[in-house]
Amino acid sequence: MNKVVVGAQWGDEGKAKITDLLAQDADLIIRYQGGCNAGHTVVAHNKTFKFHLIPSGILYKGKTCFIGAGTVILPEYFEEEIKGLINEGIDVSGLKINPLASITMPYHTEVDGYSESTAKKGKIGTTKKGIGPTYTDKMARIGLKIEDLYSEDALSEKLDIILPLKNKTLKEVYGLKTYEKEEILALCKKYAEIFRPYVCFDWQKVLEDAKREKKAVLFEGAQGVMLDIDYGTYPFVTSSNPIGGGAATGSGYGPTMIDEVIGVAKAYVTRVGEGPFVTELTDETGDKIREIGHEYGVTTGRARRCGWFDAVTMKYAVLVGGLTSIALTKIDVFDSFDEIKLCTAYKDKRNGKIYTSYPTDVFIHKYLEPVYETHKGWEQDITGITEYEKLPENAKKYLARLEELLEVPISIVSVGPDREQTIFKSK
Predict the structure, then answer these.
(1) Are 10 and 270 in contact (CB under 8 A)?
(2) CA dist 381 to 334, 377, 390, 391, Å?
(3) Residue ranges of the alpha helices (H) in 127-245?
(4) Among the residues of 298-392, which ranges form H helices?
(5) What is the mean pLDDT of each run of 10 residues along the chain (427 residues)?
(6) Which of 9, 102, 135, 385 has the lowest CB atom count within 10 Å?
(7) H helices within 323-407, ranges in order?
């Protein structure tokens, strides 16, 4: 079975742990979109590993891990991540990069930082890693791809087109440093050496062979459905397609290769950065969830905004994300709660209108308030439970209600950060 792992909220749902678990049974793991603005944390071998670009399946020997064409790669960050894994004794020989992946250049990070730091209105809350500007250039057809680093003619021709346009924008729009062609060529020479051990120029054969041999493929997404460029809380989104459909464009495999789409969601909701968040808690309860759940960004260290589970956005994620089941993480964060709230609808404070379907016009969200159900907590430690039937009755009732609202099964329940703290629930 070929599976896609999708973030079903605003990212940071614990995808890396689920990907890590599913990678045990996969032969080929493909990261299909995003860049180093994503942070994945995996606890394995009594160590904590933080991933940004490299698929977390690299922790298993004998696996092929691909960084797909739909990704954007910041070379310096990639190099740092590789060195960190090697220093921990991790074998990275199974890592491959699709030569069609895009390169984040210094001017991309500079523009991203400038745009975020000077924005008085409409700040997106990016990680300032240059992801958005890299995708912008890709769509404008003036970006550089990994394969360009290994063709002097192609690189030279491209830079003759790109640099006059880029320098004009850097100077006249942003007031930033401009670049000479020789300077970029020297950088690209350095980047070519960073990527050389991993670039897979015969990627088509590798994918064809895996398909022919019916090897198990795991597609790994970054961020989450509500950050999707087309279906998320636009403009407070990322610049790629984290939804299940994104795997079919960013990986090199078409949609017929996908059998399941597993949406990873927390038992509550978090968000990093700007944008609407109807169930956000700015009180002691929100603080309690943040501290128990250690809700701080892997990439930025920023405190995450926290709120109750939002079934309105989650039903939307099931639809547009193509979810066939849900992996629910961090339910153990509620172990000490006597009551747990669950948002089933929104109410417009201006006119009393009730929304049970997600309103995509995010600029009305400031007028919306959550309509909650209240569920009894279980008030006991569940972090050592490994069988679904042994969960407290109130925990099972909470999970059953989620399945009823979302109309998809919960296939995995995570009760702690370690691999062993996972319940595989039969459908």
Answers:
(1) yes
(2) 9, 11, 12, 10
(3) 131-139, 152-169, 181-195, 203-212
(4) 311-321
(5) 96 89 94 82 74 87 95 96 92 97 96 71 64 96 98 97 96 96 98 98 97 97 95 95 97 97 98 93 97 84 93 98 98 98 98 98 97 98 96 98 98 93 84
(6) 385
(7) 393-406
Contact indicator for 68, 30 with CB cutoff of 8 Å: yes
If phi > 0 it is left, if psi is from -120 to 50 it is alpha, else beta; for residue 45 that is left
- pLDDT on residue 126: 56
CA distance 38 to 18: 15
Half-sphere exposure of 41 (CA within 13 A, CB side): 18
- pLDDT at res. 48: 79
Position 125 scores a pLDDT of 54
CA-angle at 323, arms to 320 and 325, nearest 5°: 155
Its pTM stands at 0.92
In contact, 187 and 106? CB cutoff 8 Å: yes
Identify the H or E element spanning 60.
Answer: none
Q: Which residue has the tokens 């109807």?
A: 278
Give the residue among 27, 193, 191 at the shortest CA–CA distance from 94. Answer: 27
Active site residues: 12, 40
Q: Does domain 266-424 have CATH number 3.90.170.10?
A: yes
- CATH for 3-101+199-262 (3.10.50.30, 3.40.47.10, 3.40.440.10, 3.90.230.10): 3.40.440.10
And the tokens for 1? 């079975």
Q: Domain spans of the chain? A: 3-101+199-262, 102-195, 266-424
